[in-house]
Amino acid sequence: MTMQSTTLQSASTSLQELMHRPLVVLQVFDSAADALATASQHGIHHFPVCSRERVVGMICTCDLRDAHLTQAVGELMRPAVMLPMTKSATEAAQLMRAADVGSLLVTDRFGEPCGIVTRADLSHEAPIAALLEDCRCEACGAIRHLRRYGDRQLCVSCRDRAIDPQAFDTGGGD
Fold first, then answer.
1. What pLDDT, in 10s, does the model give residues 24-52?
2. Residue of 89, 81, 47, 65 whose CA lies nearest to 155
3. For the chain, which domains are there?
4. Three-state SS for 30?
5. Which of 123, 110, 104 is closest to 10 using CA atoms?
């Protein structure tokens, strides 16, 4: 297989091939503590948030870092970004970049969420990773748990270190 055919194959990878399922969902009234326990139990970080069996938002474990443990995830969630499973990984990367999100819900032919794809899933798909190249932490280069803080894009860990200047102290002296 030539480099060109490998590139074309990766660019046409469907979301159905990449998505994770079944979906593990949270309810709008679930607490941050419940959400973190569910994340730990299932080893995942991104969740659709539902109300009466309808997706009303998305939440990531990094959204819960500064939340009070009793706070409802419905108060912390972000709008859900969705794309049909018939779309390609390239289209997913373009949408993630445009919407500035780290995951999106994949929908079936009826428009119902049936899976999830994350930025990390797409970062292993060349040349798709090139589309997401600027979707990295400006400090450490991580591709996970990114958020905009002012005019900077940082992962949650680097954001915490930026808030605490002593975290960057190397002990080297003057």
1. 999 999 999 999 999 999 999 999 999 99
2. 65
3. 3-135 (3.10.580.10)
4. coil
5. 123
pLDDT value of residue 130:
66
Give per-residue pLDDT as tens, 78-129: 999 999 999 998 899 889 888 888 899 999 999 999 999 988 888 776 677 6
Alpha carbon distance 135, 139 (integer Å)? 12
- Return the structure tokens found at 9: 């194959």
Q: What is the C-alpha to C-alpha distance for residues 153 and 161, in angstroms, rounded to an integer?
A: 14
In the sheet where 46-51 sits, what is the strand order? 26-27, 46-51, 54-60
Single-letter residue type at 150:
G
Q: How many residues are given for the chain?
A: 174
Joined tokens for residue 71: 């706070």
